[in-house]
Each structure stands twice: as C-alpha cells, then as structure tokens.
Amino acid sequence: MNSRRPDDHGRPLDPRTAVPTPVRIAGWISAAQGLFGVITAVALVVRALGGHHEETVVISGYATAGWFAVLGGALLAAGLGLLRGRRWGRGLVLIVELLILVAVGSTLFGGTESAIFGQVGLTMYLGAVVLAVSSAVALVALLRREAVEWYAA
User: Fold this and answer.
1) In whole angstroms, what is the distance from residue 124 CA to residue 130 CA?
2) Alpha-carbon span 110 to 9, nearest angstrom
3) Rounded CA gap, 124 and 93, in Å?
C-alpha cells in the first residue's frame, strides 16, 4: 500500500487519503475504457450524420451514440475520480466492469452468431478478449485488500 512512502516532507502518507496502487490501476483501466466509449459515441454520431443506417435491423445511430456517451462518460468520470482518490467512483466502476464482462461473455459464447462460432471477425474477437481481461484486472484490483481498506477508511 502507498501509505508507507513518505511525502515530499518526509512524513508518511495518511492511509485514509493515500490512493493504493490497485485503485490507481483500476482507475487507469476504467478511465481508458470510458474514453474509448466517448470516442465510440462521437464516431457513431459522425456516421449517422453521414447518412449511414442499417439495412437489416432498425437501429438508431443517435440512440446508440447516446448510450455510449452516457456509459462511457460515467466510466471516464469514475476512473478519473478513483485516480484522484474519490471513493464514489469505486461502486460505479465495479458495476460497469461486471456489465462489460457479461456483454463480452455473451458476444463470445452467446449463441450461433457469437465470436466462437465464426460470425465475428478476428479483430472483434481479440478486442473482446482484451476488453474482458482489462475488466477482470480492474475488478480484481478493486477487490484487493488494500483497495477495500482504502474504501472503508
């Protein structure tokens, strides 16, 4: 835990305010995922403004962009909050990381059109695996003893 390192004046950091390394790791991961979500929202809006629409299903590019903007923006804010030592971001990051794992699981193993059965390209499959691993790392980091003690302080 970071509480043993002295600050600039040689005094040990207060364990109630020092942000442990696992929390920082989870903060960086969730902030990066949130930023990616916001970038995806912008790309979807640009795509919709260009006149693109799905032929086979009824999907609103604007609604999907709104969903990515809300979820990505909230995850970005929670990740930055964790990096700054704000405890409120922990709950949101835990919930979103669990939701991401469920979504990736259904993409990879969900049925005949899942990535395992060859309907999704290799790039999408690898991206899903990277997303699942990063979400699992963030979850494990936030559930480590140092992180739980920091949150409870």
Assistant:
1) 10
2) 55
3) 23
pLDDT profile of the chain (153 residues), mean per 10: 50 67 95 96 89 68 90 96 91 94 83 57 82 96 92 85
- Interhelix angle 21-49/88-109, rounded to 10 degrees, is 60
C-alpha of 144 from chain center: 17
| Secondary structure string (H, E, C) spanning the chain | CHHHCECCCCCECCCCCCCCHHHHHHHHHHHHHHHHHHHHHHHHHHHHHCCCCCCCCCCCHHHHHHHHHHHHHHHHHHHHHHHCCCCHHHHHHHHHHHHHHHHHHHHHHCCCCCHHHCCCCHHHHHHHHHHHHHHHHHHHHHCCHHHHHHHHC
pTM: 0.79
Q: How far is CA 9 from CA 5, 12, 16, 20, 151, in A?
A: 11, 9, 18, 20, 25
Strand partners, 6: 12
